[in-house]
Amino acid sequence: MDENKRNQAYNRYIKARVPKTHAWPSLFNSFWVGGLICCLGQGINDLIMLWFPSMAEQNAWAYTLIVLIFLAAFLTGIGVYDKIGKFAGGGSIVPITGFSNSITSPAVEFKHEGIIYGVFVKMFSIAGPVIVTGVIASFIVGLIYLLV
Which of 30, 80, 112, 145 could be a cystine partner for 91, CB 3.0 to 4.6 Å? Predict the structure, then answer.
């Protein structure tokens, strides 16, 4: 069997095995779950501003992010956020809660390897490249802004 026929056979095998996705329901679920997470963040911010009226708005947003990150890490730890992610797709990944999940999930998964080599090392296996890319991109944009 030549290479072209093997490739065609492999492509047929993959096409038969890959689950079919329904684009419109997936997009709809992603949209409303992401919006719900953002509305939850706005509600938390409003409650913080209501409970602490003398607090500056920027400080209230910082505390809101802390609460959202904690909630996402907690839900990841008990296995709920992964179910939300399967249902909502990108809608659960885009807000800061998705970043919290990307750090917490490997830490929970590899905790049996110990604190140093399991949790600390694996924690940034997914989020590490995102952080590095963000820092480098920020540096480049700042440099361009400085020169222009």
Answer: 30
Model-wide pTM > 0.85: no
Q: Using only the alpha carbons of the chain, give its radius of gyration.
A: 21
What pLDDT score was predicted for residue 1?
56
Q: Which domain holds residue 61?
A: 29-109
| Residue 120 maps to a domain | no
Q: Specify if 89 maps to a domain.
A: yes
135 within domain boundaries? no
Q: How many structural domains comprise the chain? A: 1
**Where does residue 50 rank: exposed (0-12), middle (13-18), buried (19+ CB within 10 A)?**
exposed
